[in-house]
Amino acid sequence: MGEFAEKLEAQPLFFQRAYLGSLLPNYVKSGNLGKYYQTLTDFNFLMPKIQHPEFGLQALIDDFNLVDDSEALSHPEYNSEKVKALNLIQRVLWMSADILDQDKTQLAEQLWGRLVHLKIPEIQAMLEVVKQRKVTPWLRPFTPCITPPGRGLIRTLAGHSDWVKAVAVTADGKRVISGSRDNTLKVWDLTTRKEVFTLEGHSNSVNAVAVSADGKVAISGSWDDTLKVWDLTTGKEQFTLKGHSNSVKAVAVSADGKRAISGSRDNTLKVWDLTTRKEQFTLEGHSDSVNAVAVNADGKRAISGSSDNTLKVWDLTTRKQLFTLKGHSDWVNAVAVSADGKRAISASDDNTLKIWDLTTRKKLFTFRGHSDSVNAVAVSADGKRAISGSWDTLKVWDLTTGDEQFTLKGQGYSVNAVAITADGKRAISASDDKTIKVWDLTTGDEQFPLKGQSYSVNTVAVTADGKRAISGSSDKTIKVWDLSTGKEEFTLKGHSDLVNAVAVTADGKRAISGSDNFTLKVWNLTTRKELFTLQGHSSSVNTLAVTADGKRAISGSDDLTLKVWDLTTRKEQFTLIRHSNSVNAVAITANGKRAISASSDKTLTVWDLTTGKERFTLNGHTSSVNAVAVTADGKRAISGSSDSTIKVWDLTTGNELFTLNGHSNSVKAVTVTADGKRAISGSSDNTLKVWDLSNGNVIASFTGESAIACCAIAPDGLTIVAGDESGRVYFLRLEGMEALT
């Protein structure tokens, strides 16, 4: 925090409360806006206010609203740069709220990760103050690696324990209702970003949700084959609608709130009377699952989308099918209808959206731009824009011209649902990353390129000289980075499928990569060319390591085996067989005599690379072992597992030494410093942690915006590179280690 903050912390709580609570209002009241500005750009004020039990994050966010922009700009001590700085800091607080709610110590990391690229003097001065703090070690991003303000993202709502499959927003834009595979719905206040209540009652995943025009009632559809009607005032279930013989995939409610229309995997739609709580009638015609349904404003027609690749338009008065819209070449996952009822927009597994004229029954145009299935679509109330959701991106489209306006990135995993507020200013998306994100559609075109790859970064390695990092991704490429600057040097292309593993020889001249296409490739990092391909595995190559002398590589695969390769002769030497499930990770001792493999069978195996024989097995994890590293002296191994733990093993005796607990989800990556004193782990809980192996304590932690999939550390023991499942590459430096001495 700094000397000032430390002195404040030493004061009695009543003094802290009076100081933190009255300082800014007094400045505003006295017209001392210069001091007001200085205080809100002072990390030594921001941090204590967030950490104080009687204030916290929301109180700090509210402090930025004591003076509006026009008032500030009319003051002689202000200028546009200062106003912009305050707005950016406040927006970072909003965007980081879900992270800071869980860990208030992450403010420094969030400010650096989101603002480091900005050249505004006031911002840079604040970051420099943050950097100089020496109270506790922390992981400082030295490149912009978290979604910066101005890219559309406003805030994240976190609370579900599984994929979020559905989302709806009330007409006044004040509340969001989300449905999840954790069998619950949650109601959120968009002003305070707090959960209002949780709706429990479904016995299986909630796939769909709709909200009445008055915002008083929500209707949900579930894999338990039912719909439930909820009172949003009390948070109580009103009643259950039963009738479908399979999962309910879609639900819509009429504008007058009197009827609900549901679509199901039983290939039908049902129309329900919400007053009598009875089914009115069933609409039959689709030959496969009904995945989407929308109803026009007058409540007379419904439009459905199906896995039979079609949309159907229904007359709800005559209870008849009016016509079918054909054109998609794969499942129709979502449909929206314009407010005037003249156009429908459909989203499909064929990676496209199509706009339909419901009067002429013709396709107007096709939106192409997503590179994966389009799962969700919503249309603005004025009918001018549509927002679609696909794998980790949302796209905003101009429905007048048929052009893409901009892309919103940062959701993480697949976007399953999207909604737009009535004023058209915000979009709300739901994702497999268990979160709901709120986007500002007025600033979505302000882009800043984050370091990373198009899809999940699955693997990363650092050269022995600490100058380069090499990452491999689900986008089928390998990227080489300058580790001192975080800038990309070049990209290696050649794999025809996901790149899951990468290793680099000790001389830094060659990289070896493993892919889902069952092969390994060896690359020359000087000429940037592929040298040769190694073939032999019968399934995906998940992991690989290379001996210190650069003569051999060991790969592990979904085919349950490890293979040892001679990189000189380009031949397989022998195969190691013992595991009963996928081999996820492998490490080699510095002397090249032993390998340690980790598997989904919950075990690790230690191998003698001279004889090709198993030495012993390490048992103790209760779930898949995803990662393993070995200390330079070859005496200890560190493993990470889906049981959320890290275990440290004695490779001499084969015994477990101790367990590191601290992650709240699967540990996907682990590495160890050259001196063997610290381990670094990455987890699906979005955090990267640095551990002291002498006492098992967490030294520092960093929270990203998606699951951390891989990590590596430079020889200096301080520079860390990590990749996440949304495609980001994080470049971090462990600061403040002197605080431990």
Provide a concise account of the structure shown.
The protein is mainly beta.
Distinctive features:
globular; 741 residues; mainly beta; 7-stranded antiparallel sheet
Description:
With 741 residues, this protein is mainly beta. Helix content is 13%, strand content 47%. It contains 10 helices and 55 strands. A 7-stranded antiparallel β-sheet has the order 2-28-27-26-25-24-23. It is globular, with a radius of gyration of 28 Å. The protein starts with a helix and ends in a 6-residue tail after the last strand.
Shape, principal axes of CA atoms: globular
Number of strands: 55
Task: Provide the gyration radius in Å.
Answer: 28 Å
The biggest beta sheet is recorded as: 7 strands, antiparallel
Low-confidence stretches: none
The number of helical elements comes to 10
**Percent range for helical residues?**
10-25%
User: Can you give the mean pLDDT?
Assistant: 92
Q: Give the helix/strand class.
A: mainly beta
In what range is the share of β-strand residues? Answer: over 45%
Euclidean distance between termini CA atoms: 18 Å
Strand order of the biggest β-sheet: 2-28-27-26-25-24-23
